[in-house]
């Protein structure tokens, strides 16, 4: 039962989209199991860039079945736009793209509430993407949410929407002094999306298990990253879903024993979008250099990403939380512009050295990172296609990461293109 989880090991934007697309050539099915269009996953094939927010990054491979699982939250408007752009690029998806009947729908009030809550938080804001993700997941937990099966049925949609709005309008009006929403107006806008998306709705659990039984290879595509996990991330500066590898179980309906391996995506330096502690953040020219060289601007909101050195204390925690079986290292080509590379190996908190990532944000805010320095390579590596072609100093940096994190590197990505990829060890072994 060869199922593999692809998980972001940092704060998101590690290059999951590129890696999922690359690995899909060896997979039959790709499943998104959490998150929504807070994600922005970039795939570059033949110099052409595609940014996917909801549709799995395996969609550009013609024969691959792509599933949006029950653990996701979907904005129908955004999904329809994404289908439009696939149509425009000639990418066929009919008959191989499916939406779980249990996925939750992001409604217009979720987006208004997301922004209103951020305003309410003021200086304590999370820095969300403003896409309604938190309020949609909150409604799921509160049992006011609308599932895709309800959304796709006109009578049920009207009823569920009316029920939800009766409650939501109280909050919109009385708490946030926002305009209430009319059932008919929302229906008028959303019914065409429901009409268009209805043919894609399926019981994804049956499809996933059918594929597993037939011995097909499945890839579960994580969104966001480990440190944005609702339970184990830097709470409250997190997203509202389980971003860890274990999230696959609830988000796609598979038991833990079905998962054969966990492929952790690690960017060769660190980035973060939004608020919250970031121990190795670089607020100087080097941070600016990494942002410029790595094009570190959000694929969803366009916000500049905060940049910093690789943090192996954080990565050890991520390896533990996900049970990572191998690492795919991305974007080391960006570090070519740096003469001396720093790696964080331990933390000092209140003058005490620790190798452990603190569980609470108040301790994380006090961290002084302890660095080790390594010489850079000053030589373009984006054309390398084999481990042996990499400069010795790059190989040393990669091996140091393996030993500090305690997980072997299976693949090194040296550029955004599908072909700019070096397989060092089989990630599916
Ligand atoms: P995701 O959210 O994890 O899928 O990552 P994003 O797509 O948001 O951000 C990663 C960015 O880095 C995208 O612009 C990719 O095209 C790009 N990228 C991915 N891998 C590499 C790499 O190895 N080198 C370089 N230079 N860019 C890469
Ligand atoms: P991908 O899949 C990076 C961040 C937001 C914010 C926090 C909460 O492309 O790696 P939310 O809108 O989810 O309630 O925002 O999480 N965030 C991401 N940062 N990459 C992402 O996705 C992210 N999705 C959410 O910036 O700090
Ligand atoms: Mg992204």
Describe the structure.
By secondary structure, this protein is α/β, with parallel strands linked by helices. The chain folds into 3 domains: 3-100 and 203-258, Adenylosuccinate Synthetase, Chain A, domain 1 (3-Layer(aba) Sandwich); 104-197, Adenylosuccinate Synthetase, subunit A, domain 2, CATH 1.10.300; 266-423, Adenylosuccinate Synthetase, Chain A, domain 3 (Alpha-Beta Complex). 33% of the residues lie in helices and 21% in strands. The protein has helices spanning 16-24, 76-89, 108-121, 133-142, 148-151, 154-175, 183-197, 204-213, 247-253, 285-293, 312-322, 361-364, 392-405, and strands at 3-8, 29-32, 41-45, 48-52, 65-68, 73-74, 97-100, 104-105, 201-202, 218-221, 259-267, 270-272, 306-308, 310-311, 326-330, 340-349, 352-354, 368-375, 409-413, 421-423. It has a 10-stranded mixed beta sheet with strand order 9-7-5-2-10-1-11-15-19-20, sandwiched between helices. α3 (108-121) packs across α4 and α6 (154-175) crosses α7. The radius of gyration is 21 Å and the shape is globular. The model has no long low-confidence stretch (mean pLDDT 97). The structure holds guanosine-5'-diphosphate (GDP), 6-O-phosphoryl inosine monophosphate (IMO) and magnesium ion (MG).
């Amino acid at each position: 039962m060869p199922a593999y989880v692809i998980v972001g090991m940092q704060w998101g934007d590690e290059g999951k989209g590129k890696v999922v697309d690359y690995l899909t050539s060896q997979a039959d099915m790709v499943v998104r199991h959490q998150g929504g269009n807070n994600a922005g996953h970039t795939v570059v094939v033949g110099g052409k860039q595609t940014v996917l927010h909801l549709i799995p990054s395996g969609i550009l491979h013609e024969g691959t079945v792509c599933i949006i699982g029950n653990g996701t939250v979907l904005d129908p408007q955004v999904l329809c736009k994404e289908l439009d752009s696939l149509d425009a690029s000639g990418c066929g998806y009919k008959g191989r793209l499916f939406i779980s009947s249990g996925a939750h729908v992001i409604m217009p009030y979720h987006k208004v509430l997301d922004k209103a809550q951020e305003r309410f938080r003021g200086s304590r804001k999370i820095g969300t993407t403003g896409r309604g993700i938190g309020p949609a997941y909150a409604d799921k937990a509160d049992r006011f949410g609308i599932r895709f099966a309800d959304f796709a049925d006109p009578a049920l949609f009207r009823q569920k929407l009316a029920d939800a709005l009766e409650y939501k309008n109280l909050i919109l009006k009385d708490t946030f002094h926002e305009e209430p929403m009319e059932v008919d107006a929302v229906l008028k806008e959303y019914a065409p999306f429901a009409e268009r998306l209805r043919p894609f709705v399926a019981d994804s659990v049956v499809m996933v298990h059918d594929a597993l039984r037939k011995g097909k290879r499945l890839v579960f595509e994580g969104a966001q990253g480990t440190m944005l996990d609702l339970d184990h991330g830097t709470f409250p500066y997190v997203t509202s879903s389980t971003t860890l590898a274990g999230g696959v179980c609830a988000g796609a309906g598979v038991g833990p024993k079905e998962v054969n391996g966990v492929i952790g995506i690690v960017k060769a330096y660190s980035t973060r979008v939004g608020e919250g502690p970031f121990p190795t953040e670089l607020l100087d020219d080097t941070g600016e250099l990494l942002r410029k060289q790595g094009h570190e601007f959000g694929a969803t909101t366009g916000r500049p990403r905060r940049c910093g050195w690789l943090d192996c204390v954080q990565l050890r925690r991520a390896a533990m939380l996900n049970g990572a079986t191998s690492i795919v290292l991305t974007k080391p080509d960006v570090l070519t512009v740096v003469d001396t590379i720093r790696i964080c190996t331990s933390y000092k908190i209140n003058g005490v050295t620790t190798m452990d990532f603190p569980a609470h944000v108040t301790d994380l805010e006090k961290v002084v990172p302890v660095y080790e320095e390594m010489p850079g390579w000053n030589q373009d590596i984006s054309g390398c296609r084999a481990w042996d072609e990499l400069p010795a100093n790059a190989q040393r940096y990669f091996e140091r990461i393996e030993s500090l994190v305690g997980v072997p590197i299976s693949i090194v990505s040296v550029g955004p293109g599908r072909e700019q990829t070096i397989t060092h060890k089989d990630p599916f072994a």
